Amino acid sequence: MKPHRLIPVALALATSMAALPAAAAEVAYTLDPAHTFPSFEADHLGGLSVWRGKFNDTRGSVHLDREAGSGRLEAVVDVDSIDFGLEAMNAKARGPSLCDAVRWPQARYAGRLVDFVDGRPTRVQGELILRGVNRPLDLQIRSFKCMPHPQHGRELCGADAHGSFQRDAFGMDAGKDYGFDMAVTLRIQAEAVADQPPAVAPVASR
Hints:
elongated, eight-stranded antiparallel barrel, 2 helices, mainly beta, 12% helix, 206 residues
């Protein structure tokens, strides 16, 4: 084929390539601390009642590739932000017999997003570091949704996750001699905003 005839072919090929959708890629998100709260439930006196509380300060990141069915997350919780709604209980929980917030000011959680269904993760396979102790901790994702943020348009993803662990496995055995159940139930609400605005597909020239 003569060189001058190659030009229209090259232009047509370039145009068709530009019109193709961009390949799916991993998206980075930052946890929204105003909408992310690890809540928990713990036994009082062997079934007498259930105490509930939450941590008010959490930060972290999420990386998600829904097309590939993979992802990961990292979160850091400030332990002294524990909140039972009763300051006397907050002070007790921060103390050395429970969270020991002075010695161990942060709890960390990191894991992989797995078991995707229709592009949505249903489980986190991870590890919790609490009071300097590292233990496996998986979370079941009960709901997961992504949408454009109504204010700035960047993608917003939210999830509701549940899990449980034995607090004495992390050195928090206060009340065990009185029959307290050591199980702690986690109920975590989380929202994360994409770090970058969505890519705009190129418009084919005519």
